[in-house]
Amino acid sequence: MSTNNRRDSLISEESTSSSTSSILSIDSYETKPRFSKFQIAGLILGSLIVTAFCVLIVNQFQCSAHLGSPKQQLIKQFTATPQHDFLAPFIKFNEKFNRDYDSVEEMVKRFAHFVGSDMAIMDLQKFSDGTIYGLTGLADKALDERGDGKEDCRDGRMLLDNMDLDWAVIDPREHPDESMPSSFDWRTKRAVTDVKDQGECRNSWVFSSIAVVESMNAIENGVLQPLSEQNVIDCELPYDRCETRTPRMALR
User: Fold this and answer.
1) What pLDDT, in 10s, does the model give residues 131-147?
2) Smallest Cα–Cα separation from 205: which of 242, 161, 164?
3) What range defines the domain where residue 198 resides?
4) How many CB atoms lie within 10 A of CB 250?
5) Cα separation of 38 and 44, whole Å?
6) Would you list the DSSP string of 47-81?
7) Membrane-spanning residues where (predicted)?
8) pTM of the model as a whole
């Protein structure tokens, strides 16, 4: 066989082999399993849902960052209103009494109560004869909320009505040789302790009784010693009663 014939034979064999390989490759692709139309539609729908969810999350974060904290939103809401002058005192009030409102709606509600309280204090101060009024920790509460912590003195009056009060009668002291001053303030004599905050507990009967004992001790012994109201509350049976009682129960 000549060289040319041998080369032609090799080319023919390679061509046949290549054709066979191409056919096998096509056949093997045709026999592979493919996704159905429903599967493809499901994949597309799932990807769209995931994309929409991601966009929603991003928008929420952007919205929160844009609006800011409840305090910042409150300032934006009332900046151009007549209540604007109350914003700075309200923020100081929150810092002083450690207020942390859960939502903007709650803060707006408390701000409205605060404005009403502050305006009432200003009206009282206008007609005051020397009394100084100020904000307390109840300034952001409604009137009915404040009533939850008020005392009901009827129980105390009923107890006093059924008691023999002879033990409370004390002969007055006469001082004929002394001239009475036009005014007298025990605070300047260091006989009165500082004002204390009873919070929302219905225990003014304890605070008033302890204040009397503190002053009596200061006048008699010359020592102004603050005493513990909490100790009296804890020792009153049943224990830890934040309810209406009488000064007699605190003093006994």
Assistant:
1) 888 888 889 998 888 76
2) 242
3) 151-168+186-251
4) 21
5) 10
6) HHHHHHHHHHHHHHHHHHHHH--HHHHHHHHHTTS
7) 40-61
8) 0.52
